[in-house]
Write a structure and sequence with these properties.
Number of strands: 11
Number of helices: 5
Strand content: 25-35%
Structural class: alpha+beta
Order of helices and strands: EEHEEHEEEEEHEEHH
Largest sheet: 5 strands, mixed
Helix content: 25-40%
Strand order of the largest sheet: 9-8-7-10-11
Shape: elongated
Radius of gyration: 20 Å
Length: 231
């Protein structure tokens, strides 16, 4: 959603989809001979939270591209930038959360396919309360039980684990991420930077490498979506 004056607007396929989901009037404007008419749909900026809530409940994520200056420099466009990425598992705004229920963002890492045992690691965080925990175990049944118990608002996983949807409920909001953020070196660096640690040797994660990688991927996702940065 792009801030244009008093409205947040979206364009092209996004506009068609949002107008249908939110029952908005689909408008448009001319984009020139090469582009043709550009579909548009928008919501008032003061009501954006309510509309974003509806989109998130439908399992979508929303990027807010806001105006970063009041008036543009002479001869230039108003500077804009993405100030917030709203996903089902990273919302902290009261209007977007269900009362008396944890809003878990969950990260899952499963062992490489060449290994015989189905071992997995999970990290979960409720960003609205600050709760954070990890666990590691083995067995598909145990993983299904853990996932059902958590009732995650959103699950993230690495791109290599493409079969993850085969054994997770279809109703879950599942987000595929670049595998690199789940690598052990990247996860260790992310954890150290996030918590301002010189080493993670004293965290007791020596035998929980999959959980460590899940935690690193989760923290990296939190940093990317910026839910804790205030305007």
């Amino acid at each position: 959603l792009y801030r244009l004056g008093d409205f947040f607007e979206c364009f092209f396929e996004d506009a068609i989809k949002v107008s249908r989901l939110l029952e908005l009037t689909l408008t448009g404007k001319e984009g020139g001979k090469a582009v043709g008419r550009v579909p548009m749909a928008g919501v008032p900026h003061h009501a954006a939270e309510r509309y974003c809530s509806e989109l998130i409940k439908k399992g979508l994520s929303v990027e807010l591209c806001d105006q970063l200056e009041v008036t543009p420099k002479k001869g230039s466009l108003i500077k804009r930038g993405i100030t917030r990425v709203l996903t089902p598992g990273t919302v902290i705004e009261e209007g977007l959360l269900e009362a008396r229920k944890n809003n878990w963002l969950t990260s899952i890492v499963i062992q490489e396919k060449e290994n015989k045992n189905f071992r997995w690691g999970i990290a979960k965080a409720d960003i609205s309360t600050g709760e954070f925990s990890i666990t590691e175990f083995e067995g598909k049944d145990a993983l299904n039980q853990e996932v059902n118990k958590i009732q995650a608002a959103e699950i993230i996983y690495g791109s290599r684990d493409d079969n993850i949807k085969d054994w997770l409920p279809e109703s879950l909001n599942i987000t595929q991420m670049n595998l690199s953020i789940f690598s052990k070196p990247s996860a260790e660096n992310t954890i150290k930077k996030y918590y301002k640690l010189k080493t993670i040797d004293n965290l007791g994660l020596e035998e929980w490498s999959l959980a460590l990688r899940a935690a690193g991927g989760l923290l990296s996702y939190i940093q990317e979506t910026k839910p804790l940065i205030k305007d």
